[in-house]
Amino acid sequence: MNGIIKLLVDIASQPALLVALIALIGLVIQKKSTSDIIKGTLKTWIGFVVLSAGADVVTGSLEPFGKMFQHAFNVQGVVPNNEAIVSMALVEYGTTTALIMFFGMLVNILIARFTKFKHIFLTGHHTLYMACMLAVIFAVAGFSGLPLVVIGSLTLGAIMSLSPFFLQRYMRDMTGSNNIGLGHFGGIGYWLSGKIGEIIGKNSKEVVSTEDTNFPKGLSFLRDSTVSIGLTMMVIYLIVALVAGPNFVASEYPDGGNYIIFSLMKGAQFAAGVYIILSGVRLILNEILPAFKGISEKLVPNSIPALDCPIVFTMAPNAVLIGFFSSFIGGVVSLIIMGLLGTTIILPGVVPHFFCGATAGVFGNAKGGRKGAIIGAFIHGIFISFLPLFLMPVLGDLGFANSTFSDADFTIVGILFGLLGSNLGRIGVVAGLILVYAAIFGYSIVKKDESEN
Fold first, then answer.
1. How is residue 297 annotated by DSSP?
2. Which of helix, strand or coil describes residue 182?
3. Is 159 a residue whose pLDDT tops 80?
4. In which band, very low, low, confident or very high, does the pLDDT at 253 lie, cut at 50, 70 and 90?
């Protein structure tokens, strides 16, 4: 039994394989031809591999940037990084995490089947990370064994349904339909950025999208997002490298050659990674939406696939870069404030500020244009800088590690249930979860009555 669960969790934690299986099921249900099934399944699989490869290229280009930034400006502190904190937690909570992840996914499907919350969360690695954090939080609250798995699974399933639900109206505005949702546990931060953009849009006489920027004739080449992203990153990388100095770059990256060339190459690598991500997204969307139709019509009526955050990058490529920088600046401002207050310093993790900040920029741009992208992502950057600070005390021994969870949903959920557990014990956690499910089913009943009237 454990072997089967482990196999299923291994499949679920690989986004490319998970979404390919979903596409396969959808095409089979629709009774497509064998050739269409093979083509649709493989192209979906390959699309996610392309997207993941692009994400790896971007992450690889940003890693030196983070190190050079810390050295250049002489800052030390805790770096929020989901992968790092999860790798430490899995040593003790590996089995519990696997069980919570598996049964949490089943709960998500059941919620989509029987309530008005129709999203099926398909971002496997984020599901794994959230399952791991819940295992830690609830273990610290006093749960163990079967009760820990049950309470963790019910909580995970609810979060997988709620996070994309609250983002759907912005997704609908950006895509013009309800065919696709966002499955990424930075949702509260994206909603906040979208809301800020909405307020800015209402109070502005003219909303200019990041994609409608008018460049002078001599700078018309900047309209190409790949060119503008590459050029901007090269300049930023070069500035940080010059401040860090050639000796530091040579000692950290002895095979990198001249530090100026090294910086320019990393800036170009970043732009290449974004280009690869956008190509993967286009390939996925062309295949997953028709394939998911079978599941939506037959197994879980009106269900919506919720996919990883780069799925929105094609909607506003310029907002991706603007969102990243605005969010990162928000992180730097937060760092300065923490230093003045004398608290633990949360360093601006470049990877979360890129993926989450870029997504926040796209959401801010949806209603508020350039101003919405800049301000929304900046506030988001402050948001995901201070929240990890409040999460650390409820993580038990992991709270003393040199890393913590970064994205907004992880921190908000962890803080809420962590405070319930530390102040009210297991009864407080159970009561909080009961309220969540009361809201889910209460909303579904009200919406059902409205549709019947």
1. I
2. strand
3. yes
4. confident
CA 111 remoteness from chain centre: 22
Of 181, 429, 195, 424, residue with least CA distance to 285:
181
Question: In the chain, how long is the greatest CA-to-CA distance?
Answer: 72
Query: To 10 degrees, what angle do helices 187-202 and 408-452 make?
Result: 70
d(CA 145, CA 123): 26
Residues 285-294 have pLDDT tens digits of: 787 777 777 7
pLDDT above 90 for 362: yes
CA torsion through residues 221, 225, 230, 236, sign: positive
Q: Are 111 and 437 in contact (CB under 8 A)?
A: no
* 304-307 sheet: strands from edge to edge: 119-121, 304-307, 181-182
> Average pLDDT, whole number, for the chain?
85
Following DSSP, what letter does each residue of 321-334 receive, concatenated?
A: HHHHHHHHHHHHHH
Distance CA 86, CA 98 (A): 12
Identify the helix (H) or strand (E) that includes residue 404: strand 403-404
End-to-end CA distance of the chain: 47
Q: Answer whether 15's CB lies under 8 Å from 308's CB.
A: yes
Task: Give the pLDDT band of residue 11 (cuts 50, 70, 90).
Answer: low
Angle, vertex CA 373, rays to CA 367 and CA 378, nearest 5: 135
Cα–Cα–Cα angle for 447, 450, 453, rounded to 5 degrees:
155
